[in-house]
Design a protein that fits this description.
mainly beta; Methylamine Dehydrogenase, Chain H; five-stranded mixed β-sheet; about 5% helix; globular
Length: about 325
């Protein structure tokens, strides 16, 4: 009877969590929608792969575009993966067959590389563009240093990679795949540091920029925050859905919060220590889309306490958490 009472209280708590679709501000970053996006760690820069255009870099302070790039030259834009270095020095972009490194100081490309062996599934870049992480459909993960040409292939996964993350210094990689496992490993040696096991395919991974936490989530109900000093689980995210996919994630600078985005327009703020949902929002769908939906591609924290989202609707949106 006590278990039933506790379960009912949990469901009532989840059901009463406020959901708002009223953003403080909105800015149009892609007229026809977006394929991918990322937001800088300090929340003042965004990069967006646009449908019907190229890749655009936006200042979220001046609300003006800084650069526009085309990875495929005059061809149609097919870039579906973007990652900003934590120090805002470089951007890595990728389609299924190639990846490119862009210098945010000069606005020029540092290089474009083609992958012939297997399709690219996700990419990440470290500070100063020192290292690039490329997850592939054959289960292999490549760590590549553009300046030295050094390559290391991580072969720990048995099936295709779904998500990758890289520490700011480029020394540590977190990778998750269809083999139900996420690995934290050293890019200098390829040695596994921690193995995080799930009960279904791992669909999203993220590292805290300060090196405190890792986030790993699978295709069902497993979404966990891990202590990177011990490898122990800190919390499991509490939600009532049988399946929940995360399309983006970011830890706050103070380490208290995790912010996630999902394909169903959901933007959610979580407590790192407890895994409790603190607040949630619905980003705006693309106009005249049927059904009215959007994928939250990127999330971020601003220094003033507000949060940001970039979605497939082509909109950047600003939100105020009640904390």
């Amino acid at each position: 009877m006590q278990k039933l009472h506790a379960l009912l209280c949990f469901f009532l708590l989840c059901a009463c969590t406020p959901i708002s679709d009223k953003a403080d501000e909105m800015w149009r970053h892609a007229v026809d929608g977006a394929f991918a996006a990322d937001i800088s760690a300090d929340g003042n820069l965004a990069v967006v792969s646009t449908i019907g255009g190229g890749i655009r870099v936006w200042s979220l302070d001046s609300l003006k575009p800084k650069y526009e790039w085309r990875q495929s030259g005059d061809g149609a834009n097919t870039v579906g993966m973007l990652n900003l270095a934590p120090d805002k020095s470089f951007v890595v972009s990728a389609d299924r067959d190639s990846f490119a490194l862009w210098n945010l100081q000069s606005g020029e490309p540092e290089g474009i590389w083609r992958i012939d062996e297997s399709s690219i599934r996700d990419v990440a870049v470290s500070d100063m563009g020192r290292g690039i992480l490329v997850g592939r459909g054959n289960g292999k993960v490549m760590f590549f240093e553009p300046k030295t040409g050094r390559r290391l292939e991580f072969l720990g996964h048995q099936e295709k990679i779904n998500s990758v993350a890289l520490s700011p210094n480029g020394f540590y990689a977190l990778t998750g795949g269809n083999d139900y496992v996420a690995y934290l490993w050293d890019t200098r040696s390829g040695q596994v540091i921690y193995r995080f096991t799930h009960t279904s395919r791992v669909t999203k991974v993220e590292l805290d920029d300060q090196g405190r936490y890792a986030f790993t989530a699978d295709s069902k109900r497993g979404a966990f925050i891990w202590d990177l000093h011990s490898g122990n689980k800190i919390s499991q995210l509490h939600f009532i859905e049988r399946q929940k996919i995360f399309s983006s994630a970011r830890f706050s600078a103070d380490g208290h919060y995790l912010l996630t985005g999902s394909p169903g327009r959901n933007l959610i703020l979580w407590d790192v220590t407890t895994g409790d949902k603190l607040q949630s929002w619905l980003v705006h769908p693309r106009e005249q889309s049927t059904p009215p939906t959007a994928v939250v591609y990127a999330v971020g924290f601003r220094k003033d306490g507000k949060i940001l989202s970039e979605s497939s609707s082509g909109l950047a949106e600003l939100w105020s958490p009640d904390l």
